């Protein structure tokens, strides 16, 4: 019934706009934000290289959704979209990239907290969404381009309430952009062994990101933005995309600052393995090399299923060869062309030496006590038994270092504190600092959500609504209380200041100095924000002797 009601409202607005009258709709309180929406045939018209687009105005922010930034045939590099006549309506989100069903570990509790919107899938999914305080007014606003998470397999630029750019744009007089691009088998199936036609297929999704940044470079001035002051930021898989773009030659000059949130990707797929996956897909589908073009005609679901089986097969083969398969799956490939080198191995990319970077993680990331209810009331004795299975005779050393890093800890902290993302983030920050170029800043998000009796703690993605200043809009995750709102004001200010100047220092925060390997300055975001120095150095030294292969 609710969806039908909203559909009627949207249809009414379109009818009114086609008649030339402004449609002013009082937003429903269930949407989490009260205010006036203005949509009409004469409102929010912007010019792009491909043609005019019509958005709408909400709370003083011009909003555009679903603008095509490129088009692409299956497995092919993106190309410019065809120009259109008249004005294109850009008031509703466009299609998302087709993807598999959500992984089984998502529970009803997580569905409530995250409040996902999967949208509707279509291979014609290369779209951008824009929030801006003004149009072509010469103000040269900083531009913040968000790259969504979900690895390289899932997600979209519109899937979470946190991704809405209204509050960030309004607070910081900035232009916020989110986008969709090709994922999984559509974006990262390496068929380069089957001829020049498919030479770039393994990085088609990465090329989509470059195409989106090229579109921003050419068009963002019409939306009040400064093409010479663009920050890319992303979380989880989005952080991996940011890491990879820092090493992608075709992206050079298209952005000027970068933020990596829980997604420090030091290495990605080597082509000998990505090509193995491509070959295994062909085998799964019973195709010969001469039939390679048949892949472009097959139903997506059939190709994806073959891809998933191929990944499992190649992963098993690699493990028998003694090769870690942590990064095996859908991801960019080091092909010597689109991506010539590993993003941050053995060093930070030289092409990005002059780009300031901010890197961080959450304290708990994939919180064990969230997924294993028995861990929520675990005793220290049981936690130590659990740790001994991994750290063996070094367990006591681990406990001593843990107490030093996190004095006064709870027993469940021993199994909840993240050691999957934090080590990579620290290594990435050290490599960036070693360049002695633009500064790198490190943070850790440690605030714990009270939602559902605190079961999520500071889990993976918990920092996103704070960075976007959307703690109320995404109250199902944060609780939306006064403490959350106060921290959201501080964090979003830091993100905005970094986007504007390359320095995240903001009112209400202690002095935040750049990260160095010697001092290890790390901003701890919590109700009482503070900077700590190498607080977990000894602990990480123990942890890294037993590398975690991740989830």
TrEMBL record:
<dbReference type="InterPro" id="IPR002018">
    <property type="entry name" value="CarbesteraseB"/>
</dbReference>
<feature type="signal peptide">
    <location>
        <begin position="1"/>
        <end position="22"/>
    </location>
</feature>
<keyword id="KW-0378">Hydrolase</keyword>
<dbReference type="Pfam" id="PF00135">
    <property type="entry name" value="COesterase"/>
</dbReference>
<comment type="similarity">
    <text>Belongs to the type-B carboxylesterase/lipase family.</text>
</comment>
<feature type="domain" description="Carboxylesterase type B">
    <location>
        <begin position="44"/>
        <end position="535"/>
    </location>
</feature>
<dbReference type="InterPro" id="IPR019826">
    <property type="entry name" value="Carboxylesterase_B_AS"/>
</dbReference>
<dbReference type="InterPro" id="IPR050309">
    <property type="entry name" value="Type-B_Carboxylest/Lipase"/>
</dbReference>
<dbReference type="GO" id="GO:0016787">
    <property type="term" value="F:hydrolase activity"/>
</dbReference>
<keyword id="KW-0732">Signal</keyword>
<dbReference type="InterPro" id="IPR029058">
    <property type="entry name" value="AB_hydrolase_fold"/>
</dbReference>
<protein>
    <recommendedName>
        <fullName>Carboxylic ester hydrolase</fullName>
        <ecNumber>3.1.1.-</ecNumber>
    </recommendedName>
</protein>
């Amino acid at each position: 019934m609710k969806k039908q009601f909203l559909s009627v409202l949207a249809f009414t607005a379109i009818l009114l706009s086609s008649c030339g009258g402004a449609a002013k709709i009082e937003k429903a309180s269930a949407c989490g934000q009260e205010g006036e929406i203005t949509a009409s045939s004469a409102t929010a018209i912007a010019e792009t290289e491909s043609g005019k687009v019509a958005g709408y105005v909400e709370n003083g922010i011009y909003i555009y959704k679903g603008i095509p930034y490129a088009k692409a045939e299956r497995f092919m590099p993106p190309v410019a979209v065809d120009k259109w006549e008249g004005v294109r309506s850009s008031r509703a989100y466009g299609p998302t990239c087709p993807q598999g069903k959500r992984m089984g570990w998502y529970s009803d509790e997580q569905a409530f907290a995250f409040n996902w919107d999967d949208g509707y899938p279509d291979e014609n999914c290369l779209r951008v969404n824009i929030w801006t305080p003004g149009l072509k007014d010469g103000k040269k606003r900083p531009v913040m381009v968000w790259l969504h998470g979900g690895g390289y397999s899932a997600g979209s630029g519109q899937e979470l309430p946190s991704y809405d750019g209204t509050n960030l744009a309004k607070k910081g007089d900035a232009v916020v952009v989110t986008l969709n691009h090709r994922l999984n088998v559509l974006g990262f199936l390496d068929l380069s062994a089957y001829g020049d036609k498919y030479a770039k297929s393994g990085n088609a999704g990465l090329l989509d990101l470059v195409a989106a940044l090229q579109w921003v470079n050419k068009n963002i001035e019409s939306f009040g933005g400064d093409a010479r002051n663009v920050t890319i930021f992303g979380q989880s898989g989005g952080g991996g995309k940011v890491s990879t773009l820092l090493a992608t030659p075709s992206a050079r000059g298209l952005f000027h600052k970068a933020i990596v949130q829980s997604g420090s990707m030091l290495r990605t797929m080597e082509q000998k393995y990505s090509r193995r996956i491509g070959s295994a897909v062909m085998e799964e589908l019973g195709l010969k090399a001469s039939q390679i073009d048949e892949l472009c005609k097959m139903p997506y679901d059939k190709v994806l299923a073959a891809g998933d089986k191929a990944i499992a097969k190649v992963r098993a083969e690699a493990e028998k060869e003694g090769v870690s398969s942590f990064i095996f799956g859908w991801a960019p490939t080091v092909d010597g062309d689109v991506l010539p080198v590993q993003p941050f191995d053995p060093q930070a990319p030289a092409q990005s030496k002059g780009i300031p970077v901010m890197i961080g993680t959450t304290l708990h990331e994939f919180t064990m006590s969230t997924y294993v209810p028995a861990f929520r009331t675990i005793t220290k004795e049981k936690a130590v038994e659990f740790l001994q299975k991994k750290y063996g005779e070094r367990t006591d050393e681990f406990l001593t270092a843990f107490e030093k890093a996190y004095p006064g800890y709870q027993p469940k902290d021993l199994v909840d504190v993240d050691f999957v993302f934090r080590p990579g983030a620290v290594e990435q920050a050290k490599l960036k600092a070693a360049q002695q170029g633009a500064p790198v800043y490190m943070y850790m998000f440690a605030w714990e959500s009270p939602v559902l009796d605190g079961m999520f703690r500071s889990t993976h993605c918990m920092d996103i609504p704070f960075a976007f200043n959307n703690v109320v809009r995404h109250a199902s995750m944060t609780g939306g209380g006064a403490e959350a709102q106060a921290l959201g004001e501080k964090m979003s200010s830091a993100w905005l200041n970094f986007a504007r100047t390359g320095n995240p220092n903001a009112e209400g925060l202690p002095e935040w100095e750049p990260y160095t390997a010697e001092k290890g300055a790390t901003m701890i975001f919590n109700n009482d924000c503070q900077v700590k120095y190498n607080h977990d150095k000894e602990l990480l030294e123990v942890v890294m002797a037993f590398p975690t292969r991740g989830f």
